[in-house]
Design goal:
mainly alpha, single chain, about 130 residues, elongated, Four Helix Bundle (Hemerythrin (Met), subunit A)
Length: about 130
Amino acid sequence: MKRFATALVLLLLTLTLSIGAQLIFSKKTDELITGLEALLCAVDAGEGEKRALENVEKAWHGSKKILHILLVHRSMDEIEININSLGEYLGAGDRESLRQACTEALMQLENLRDAGRITIENILKIA
């Protein structure tokens, strides 16, 4: 009976940690996605890019450590390259490259968020 109780406690602990990690992951990726969407809107409007970029960089620095723990480092490196290049493109006045890097980072984050969602399809995915 003690083994069963111990196993049940460990199972509940594992589920709690998994759900907590999922909630943190969703919150952090949603913050970054919202910031990148605001940056794209600012680029399209032609004003406010600097403030929007500061918000994205602030969200990125606040999320980077926890996302590195939760995600594959290769995925994080690709996103980090795109986010770090945003400031360079804004400083150079290269709006097209800024838009492209922002869109790529946005798509990468959305793909990671969708792949990490707890859904029947993701749980039962074999390949």
